[in-house]
Design a protein that fits this description.
5 helices, GrpB/CoaE, coenzyme a biosynthesis, GrpB family protein, five-stranded mixed sheet
């Protein structure tokens, strides 16, 4: 996305295919580096309105090796993005001035209890909560909130829903925005 507008789209049934294509490209490029790769985020929840950006999460046995070889992602259009989070590597794919994909690379130890994966699965099985989340995102966009403030504006509901998702797995609540 450009930095001066926030766009929320109706669910696009093409998003899973776009994610599958990106996952296939990543697996072909880093066959022995990535243990798991999944489509996460709102574009991975059927029926949910979302920013039209495909979020992916990958588990790597050796994130240091991923970082060492990150230049290999350049032909796919991914560039490293430093956002202050110390628990993952983050890459963005931009076409023109539009962000199209985000790739989170995490260690395999944290993979099973990643908030993003748990929330995605929760929203897939709780359509009323998914609808609440979609409505909130549309209200945020309609209010003219800048993309830089978008995540913070969603925090209360995301925390509530993530806590529910974690509880279903017997996991304690944790802050949704990792440091």
């Amino acid at each position: 996305m450009s930095t001066d507008s926030l766009r929320i789209d109706d669910y696009d049934p093409g998003w899973p295919a776009a994610a599958a294509q990106a996952i296939s490209e990543l697996r072909a490029r880093w066959r022995n580096l990535l243990i798991e790769v999944e489509h996460i985020g709102s574009t991975a929840v059927p029926g949910l309105a979302a920013k039209p950006v495909i979020d992916l999460m990958a588990a790597a046995a050796d994130p240091v090796e991923v970082q060492r070889r990150e230049a290999e992602l350049a032909p796919l259009g991914y560039r490293r993005h430093l956002n202050g989070m110390s628990d993952r590597l983050l890459y963005v794919r931009v076409r023109g001035d539009v962000r199209t994909h985000i790739l989170h690379v995490v260690d395999t130890a944290s993979w099973p209890h990643r908030n993003q994966r748990l929330l995605r699965d929760y929203l897939r099985t709780h359509p009323q909560d998914a609808a609440r989340y979609g409505d909130l995102k549309r209200r945020i966009a309609a209010a003219g909130i800048l993309p830089a403030d978008y995540a913070r504006a969603k925090t209360g509901l995301i925390q509530e829903l993530t806590d529910r998702a974690r509880a279903q797995h017997g996991l304690p609540p944790v802050p949704v925005w990792e440091k």
